[in-house]
Specification:
elongated, four-stranded antiparallel β-sheet, three-stranded antiparallel β-sheet, 231 residues, single chain, Immunoglobulin-like, alpha+beta, 3 helices
Length: 231
């Protein structure tokens, strides 16, 4: 066969192989589109699974936090901090030609579920009767009494009674009381025999809640009448 005929035959066979109908081309495009869509669909499913996993993890964390909180509310009876009951027991005896010995016994009862820790305490005696003259003292308790008599709504919580004696304690070692236990601590003061009625105030600092110079603690006060009673 002539070489020119071979070349022509080869050319026609190649064109025949590469020639496709419009339907085939459309099917090819369709298949390509399906591959693209399937690929993107796979990505979307992957991200959906990640989001679903994230929500499952968040739900588990929320359940754990809720369980811990419920434990503290129900089991621990909300006793995150110590619960303290303070009782003052006061007695006195006259010292002839000397003064009046006042004994103050303070009972601290830990009613909570956590330990009481205190490093500082304060006990204060203030004179109520007989009423002393202010003599320029500020604030003046006499003015406070007169003001209280003329007003229905008080502006202050208490009167600034004159100070008789005070004891401040910085414990060398923290003062501690275990849950369910109680502790007694006593103080003695000598005041003039002329004093008839006093206000007794005591305070113990709560180390757990005292933060950044803001001091929190437990306190109690009582009025003690020395007329006609002595031990």
């Amino acid at each position: 066969m002539d070489d020119s005929l071979l070349i022509i035959n080869y050319y026609h066979r190649r064109k025949k192989v590469e020639r496709r109908s419009p339907k085939e081309i459309q099917n090819k495009k369709k298949n390509s589109g399906e591959v693209f869509l399937n690929h993107n669909k796979g990505k979307i499913l992957f991200f959906n699974e990640i989001i679903e996993l994230f929500f499952h993890i968040s739900a588990i964390i929320a359940l754990i936090i809720g369980g811990i909180w419920t434990y503290y509310l129900v089991v621990k009876q909300r006793n995150f901090y110590p619960i303290v009951n303070i009782e003052e027991k006061i007695s006195h005896v006259d010292l002839p030609k000397k003064g009046r010995l006042v004994r103050i016994e303070i009972e601290l009862n830990n009613l909570g579920k956590s330990k009481i820790v205190s490093k500082r305490a304060l006990v204060r005696l203030q004179q109520i009767l007989p009423i002393l003259n202010c003599k320029g003292a500020k604030p003046c308790w006499e003015n406070q009494i007169d003001q209280a008599l003329n007003e229905v709504i008080r502006k202050n919580d208490r009167f600034s009674w004159p100070l008789l004696a005070e004891r401040q304690i910085e414990f060398d070692f923290p003062f501690e009381i275990e849950p369910g236990e109680k502790e007694l601590i006593d103080f003695e003061f000598v005041i003039p025999l002329t004093v008839e009625v006093t206000r007794i105030y005591c305070y113990f600092r709560n180390e757990e809640k005292t933060r950044n110079g803001y001091e929190v603690g437990w306190s109690a006060s009582s009025i003690y009448d020395m007329r006609g009673q002595s031990i």
